[in-house]
Design goal:
Diaminopimelate Epimerase, Chain A, domain 1; alpha/beta; about 45% helix; 11 strands; inorganic pyrophosphatase (n-terminal core); 14 helices; globular
Length: about 350
């Protein structure tokens, strides 16, 4: 005889949760963007993956294949023109929703293509990546605690170079400490702000950065390209997270128009020293992009280039940087209606 089962005892069918994936830039700003979106999607099957700018395409493919998302966010990463064909290949004929949110400078072509490829583009240069994600989450009903709001504000403070709170720079630098990084990211996810752990990690990375910077500067190249005073500094890939802070140290010695770091894998990391130059336009000529004051690109190092750079701290393919600066200077003069540039005289 089949017995009736009361509603209290009746087993419930398992609910299939939506798979949500966030691919975010692996700096303070991008991490806080992912954390803000988690506040909206905590009931979903949620996964966050940090990526360097250089490995964005590779990691985008990886998270799609691994997690098979229903909803994918890309946060705090600006696509470059040189990546559009690859993005078409990856995102065409997909069966999941894509939302791309960013605050870096995009070309008109990138805006058009990304708008065609994804379901929703949230593009606003007035705030940081975490600010965009937090605003998006709150508009859809997410509750951000006071601590989370504070951490979002701190990430914007350093990412937008406002620097109204000294903790923002210190926390961003501490996240560049490889020995402490995973532990500190875990603290951010648990909404733990500045404390003794952060202070210890910060002090350790400051000491190491100053030692390494002295070595890097001894191998640097200083040049005048057109009207721009630049310095090209070879670094190792492990110190890429600290380039903004190394640039600040260099500015104290001399106000270069552009401070250009070249890593031992050929990645470029540029920081502005004056208002005379828009680095995002220079970076665009080097398969990159970013902000007018902070941008990145690449030099396509060969295996031999990487070995020579790593062993001798000797930057390779410097002529590509010089050519891009001259091309940028010529375009600026042309836009101003000038027929000749200082580059043509050199």
């Amino acid at each position: 005889m089949i017995r009736a089962v009361c509603n209290m005892c009746r087993p419930k069918r398992p609910v299939e949760r939506r798979k949500v994936v966030v691919l975010h830039h692996n700096d303070f700003d991008g991490i806080m963007g992912a954390i803000s979106l988690y506040r909206l999607h905590s009931d979903d099957d949620f996964h966050a993956k940090g990526t360097s700018r250089r490995k964005m395409i590779k990691n985008l493919e990886k998270v799609i294949k691994k997690y098979k998302p229903n909803l994918l966010y890309v946060v705090d990463i600006g696509p470059n023109d040189s990546e559009l064909d690859e993005l078409r290949r990856i995102l065409d004929n997909r069966n999941f929703k894509v939302i791309w949110m960013d605050h870096h400078k995009w070309s008109d072509n990138v805006k058009r293509v990304i708008s065609e490829l994804v379901d929703e583009v949230i593009y606003d240069r007035s705030t940081c990546g975490a600010g965009l994600a937090a605003r998006y989450a709150k508009e859809r009903g997410a509750k951000l605690c006071d601590c989370c709001e504070e951490l979002v504000n701190l990430s914007c403070d350093i990412d937008l170079w406002i620097r109204s709170d000294p903790r923002s720079e210190k926390m961003s630098m501490a996240l560049g400490n490889r020995r402490w990084r995973s532990y500190l990211i875990d603290k951010l996810w648990k909404c733990v702000g500045w404390d003794k752990d952060w202070e210890d990690a910060y002090q350790e990375v400051i000491d190491e950065m100053k030692r390494n910077l002295r070595k890097y500067l001894s191998k640097s190249i200083k040049k005048k390209v057109c009207e721009y005073e630049i310095i090209i500094v070879p670094i190792r890939i492990k110190d890429v997270a600290l380039v903004s802070f190394m640039a600040e140290e260099i500015r104290k010695e001399k106000p270069y128009d552009a401070i250009i770091f070249v890593s031992d894998v050929g990645s470029l990391h540029m920081r502005r020293g004056s208002e005379k130059i828009d680095l995002s336009e220079v970076a665009r000529r080097l398969s990159g992009g970013g902000h007018p004051a902070a941008a990145g690109g690449r030099l396509d190092y060969t295996f031999l280039d990487k070995i020579i750079h790593k062993l001798f701290l000797k930057p390779r393919k410097v002529e590509l940087i010089i050519r891009s600066l001259k091309d940028y200077a010529g375009a600026v003069c042309e836009n101003k209606g000038m027929r000749e540039t200082k580059c043509q005289e050199e």
